[in-house]
Design a protein that fits this description.
about 0% strand; mainly alpha
Amino acid sequence: MSVNNLEPNPRVREYICSGIKYAEEMLNCMECVSNRYNKHLSESIHLGHLSKVDVSLTHACKKLFEYKKNYEKYLDEYDNFDKNFRSFSKK
């Protein structure tokens, strides 16, 4: 059996969705903690005490957004493959 003839596996979709959820939860956690300590962070930024951490957090956020975007693309590709497979199978 050719790889191109394999039926879409729902566990693959679950794996992709968990990647998206992971990125969303990490970004949410970072936002919640930042909001909780907003006053401290504002003062630390003003005093120049947060520059290295700020750069690291900004980098982490960018990478999480990229990760999420990639997994959203994978989900679209999977869903298109599933749709095409199902429509082809009906013929």
